[in-house]
Write a structure and sequence with these properties.
Layout: E1 8-12, H1 16-27, E2 31-36, H2 55-60, E3 64-68, H3 76-85, E4 89-92, H4 96-101, H5 106-112, E5 117-122, H6 137-143, H7 146-149, H8 168-191, E6 195-200, H9 201-207, H10 211-217, E7 238-241, E8 244-248, H11 253-262, H12 276-279, H13 283-297, H14 302-311, E9 316-318, H15 329-334, E10 337-340, E11 343-346
Length: 374
């Protein structure tokens, strides 16, 4: 039996953020009803796959059902109310004004559906000024500081790396929303009462501040206008190898000792002091190391080299491409990918012995479950 079997979630979203939150609840077995406008969720058009819905939509909406409600129709609010009367939770990422037009704003839900857990995800929280409610991923990732710091180590003569992509904040805020909704559902089970959950995507990303941003916020390091001021330092970066790329981090003498073993101690290593990474990491030494290492690693196989390096305590990892992941030894061992129809889906990174998660149904065809509104 799935962990959330017997619970019903209604999802009214238009972005990756809310779809991901609802998908996590569906993973745990909650019956998740997706309410879409006549044209369908905008996410259906992202990364189109021939004549099918986009790949991102396919992944975000497994184990869900779909009904269509025209938000401009006079019966729209009545139909939504009918769905919410039978539901335990509502997940939405609409701006407050749009939510109010559909009758799913905070005050009305508390009045008409007091049993309901309502989870709303917005850029700065629902009480932020109206002009802040229309912000998108690029605004959120910049407002939280992550666009400045991530990715680090961009090569000075190359365009900036794309980093984690446009949906980092969406996935992080969606995860927080699913966690808070699950906790609220437990309270509802104990008290019979719902509550409002207000998720701020920017606050979520600020809570994920890494060591560099944390030091800045704590006043231990002054901000700077230099783009590379907060990079890790050291000679590490991405290097081309025989069959792809590897990423190396080098910051301690232990890393240097391990790398010497990995490379069978070539003579050029003798030009560097053993403690140079910690006390003598000058730009000219970094440049010389990178030149020598790039020449050596160019003939090395990616996965075998990474495995050997890690056994020696060297933080060197393969740079995986999307097509590499389904064949990755660890993912194969864990059964992380599941085939359903003509598509292969990532599943979940955990195992639950009594209530395992699985993909039971693919993303729904638009309006496939319209009978659920009757």
């Amino acid at each position: 039996m799935s962990a959330l079997k017997g619970l019903r979630i209604v999802e009214i979203t238009e972005q990756v953020t809310g779809e991901y939150a609802a998908r996590l609840l569906a993973d745990f077995g909650a019956e998740t009803l997706k309410i879409e406008p006549p044209g369908g969720s905008p996410v259906r058009a992202i990364l189109p796959d021939e004549d099918q819905d986009g790949l991102l939509f396919a992944w975000l909406n497994t184990n869900k059902r779909s009904v269509v409600i025209d938000p401009d129709a006079p019966e729209a609010i009545g139909l939504i109310d009918r769905a919410l009367t039978r539901a335990d939770a509502l997940v939405t990422d609409l701006a407050p004004e749009a939510a109010a037009r559909l009758g799913i704003d905070r005050d009305r839900i508390a009045d008409v559906h007091p049993h309901l857990v309502r989870c709303a995800i917005t850029p700065f929280g629902e009480t932020a000024p109206d002009e802040w409610q229309q912000l998108r991923a690029i605004n959120i990732i910049n407002a939280s500081g992550w666009a400045w710091h991530s990715p680090s180590e961009a090569l000075p003569d190359s365009p900036p790396l794309q980093g984690p992509g446009p949906f980092l904040a969406a996935f992080e805020a969606g995860l927080e929303a699913a966690l808070a909704t699950s906790a609220s559902l437990w309270r509802k089970r104990q008290t019979g009462q719902g509550q409002n959950v207000d998720i701020s995507a920017v606050a979520t990303m600020l809570s994920r501040a890494d060591c560099v941003l944390g030091r800045m916020l704590a006043g231990e390091q002054d901000p700077s206008h230099a783009r590379t001021c907060y990079d890790m330092g050291g000679p590490g970066r991405t290097f081309a190898c025989a069959d792809g790329h590897v990423f190396l981090i080098m910051t301690t003498q232990a890393h240097w000792t391990g790398l010497s073993q990995l490379m069978d101690a070539p003579e050029w290593l003798l030009d560097f002091p053993p403690d140079w990474l910690e006390f003598h990491c000058t730009p000219d030494r970094v440049a010389r190391f990178r030149q020598h290492f790039a020449e050596w690693v160019a003939g090395q196989p990616r996965n075998a080299l990474s495995d050997k390096a890690q056994r020696l305590g060297v933080p060197l990892v393969p740079v995986n491409r999307p097509g590499d992941l389904p064949r990755h030894d660890q993912f194969l061992h864990r059964g992380f990918f599941q085939r359903l129809g003509d598509r292969v889906y990532p599943t979940v990174p955990y195992r639950m012995s009594a209530s395992p998660t699985r993909i039971a149904t693919p993303a729904p065809v638009l309006g496939a479950d319209q009978a659920m509104l009757s």
